[in-house]
# Entry
Amino acid sequence: MNILFRADSSSSIGTGHIMRDLVLASQYKKDNIIFATRNLKGNMNNKIIESGYNIEILNSNNIDEVNNIITKYNIDFVVIDSYDIDFKYEKELKTNNPKIKILSFDDTYEKHYCDILLNHNIGANPKKYKKLVSRNCELRCGEKYTLLRDEFIKEKKKKRKIISNINPLKTIFIAMGGTDYGNLNIKILKTIKKFDNIKVNLVTTKANENLKNLKKYVKGKKWITLHVNSNKIAKLMNKSDFAIITPSVIINEVYFMEIPFIAIKTVNNQKGIYKYLKNKKMNIMKEFSKNKLEKYIKKFK
# Structure
C-alpha cells in the first residue's frame, strides 16, 4: 500500500503534527510511506528524512500539488494532519481521487470528509462527531488509540525511583512545546528558582525561535539542564517528580507515564484537552500566571 502523509511543521505550527505522524507511520512497516510537507521556517522535515521516509516539498497548500503526488505515487491511503485542511479540501481530494481512503486527525471537533477520523487525545468524545462526519466514517477516539513512541512503552516497564521525603530534591520536567509558542520557558524558570531543592530538565527543539535567549538564561545555572532535540524524553519524564507542560499531545505521554503534572494552555487548539482536564479538576491553567504556578508547585513540594 502507498500511503501519503500531509502535514506541516514550523516555529508557529509547532512540531507535534509531524512527531505523531511518524509514530503512526511506524505502524505501517510493510508499506511505502511518503510525506508531503511545506518547507516552512523552523520545520522538522529533517526528522522525516532521518526516519527513512520519502518527502515531497510543497510550494503551497494548493490541492493540485497533492493531487499530482497522489497520481505520481499511485497513493491508496492519505493521512491528513493539518488545521489548514478542512472539510471542503478533503471532499475535493476524495472527488478527484475516488479510490483513496482518507484518515483525518482531529482534536478540535471540526467537520471532516474522511473514511477514518482519529482523535487520540485522552478524553476524546466520539459522540461529539455525530454531526461532523458521515455515518460510514470510522471513529477512533480516546486513550485506546493514543500514539506513543516505543521509548515510552519501554520506559514505562521500568520502576520509577522513589525519592526520600527527608530534604527531598524535586526533579521537574518542563516541555512547553517544541517551539514554545507562548514564550513561557524563561517565565516558568524564574518562578521555579524561588524554591529550594529543585532540579529542572527542560526540553525544546531547534525550531524554538526563543532558543538563543533560553540558552543565555540557563547558562551557569547548575539546577537547569537544557535538552534540545532530545531522543530521551521518556527517560527524562520517568526521572521526574512532576511535569510542567501544555495541554497538547504531550499530555498523552505524561498521562501514560503516570507523571503528576501542571498544564498551561498556550494556544486555542488546546481548548478541548484543557476543558477535559479542568472538568477532572487537574492542575490546569487557562494562561500563564506566576502566582497560580507557585501555588501548584507548592502542592508537589
Observations:
- The longest helix spans residues 63-73.
- The chain is about 30% helix and 20% strand.
